[in-house]
Every structure is written in C-alpha cells, then in structure tokens.
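Budget justification aside, the reviewers requested a transparent look at the raw inputs and outputs of the sequence design task funded under Objective 1. We therefore reproduce one unedited record. The lines immediately below are the structure tokens for a 143-residue chain.
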C-alpha cells in the first residue's frame, strides 16, 4: 500500500487552507505555493469541493477555503474523498479477486490492518495537525 500523490497533495492543500482559515479565501496561486502544479491542484480542490470539504468563491477576492472548521475535518475524510478508504491488499476491497477470500486467514489480517489504518486516519483532524505540539503520534495513547 502506498499513498498516491492525490492523497499527499490533497492533504498538503487542506493543511494550507487550515493554516489560513482566518484569512478568508485563498487564491489557487497561493495554495499552489505548497509545490503542487496549479492544474493538478485545481482538480484536487474540485474533488474536495464536491465532497463538501472545500468551498469556492469566484471573482477577484475569490479562491478556496475549508467548508468546515479544522477540527471537523479528518485526514481520513481527505484521503477518502481523493482515493477512497485505504486497503493493505486488493482482496480486502474486493473479495472476488481471489478464490480463497472467504477462508483466507491472511485476508483477515489485511482487513484488520486496513480498518486500523482508516480508523487512525479518521481520528486525526486538521486542528491536530495545526497544533503539532499537542499531536500525539503514539496510537496507543490517542483517545
């Protein structure tokens, strides 16, 4: 399992918007300063808008902003919107890909790991990322 550039760049963009929540809408050009090509970023932000995570305003003072408060948007929300839930193995997302799916002990392990990863991603908010000094990276001690 490897996170694609969609997920990485989408998280970068959402973090940028979270950092500028109090500054109003951010022009695409400003958001692109995170190192993402504008055309690609525009596609990602469009997907995030359709998922209800970003709002847009047209015009000279327009741009992009978070549709919700940073504490109401999780890393999991962003990844799900751009890539769908993460899975360790293809058989977790589609049991038809292997004839042993129903009786496979390994598949149960991959499903458990996939669920754990997605649950952890759902527990980390943009606010957590903004407050990195309070951000506990040890999943055993997270609430």
């Amino acid at each position: 399992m490897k996170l694609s550039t969609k997920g990485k760049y989408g998280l970068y963009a959402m973090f940028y918007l979270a950092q500028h929540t109090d500054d109003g809408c951010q022009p695409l050009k400003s958001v692109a300063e995170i190192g993402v090509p504008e055309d690609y970023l525009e596609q990602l932000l469009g997907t995030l808008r359709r998922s209800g995570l970003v709002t847009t305003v047209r015009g000279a003072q327009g741009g992009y902003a978070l549709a919700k408060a940073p504490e109401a948007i999780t890393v999991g929300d962003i990844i799900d919107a751009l890539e769908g839930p993460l899975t360790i193995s293809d058989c977790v997302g589609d049991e038809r890909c292997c004839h042993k799916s129903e009786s496979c002990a390994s598949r149960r392990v991959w499903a458990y790991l996939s669920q754990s990863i997605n649950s952890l991603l759902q527990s980390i908010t943009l606010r957590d990322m903004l407050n990195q000094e309070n951000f506990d990276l040890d999943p055993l001690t997270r609430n």
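The beta strands are 54-57, 63-66. The first strand starts at residue 54 and ends at 57. Computational costs for records of this kind are itemized in the attached budget.
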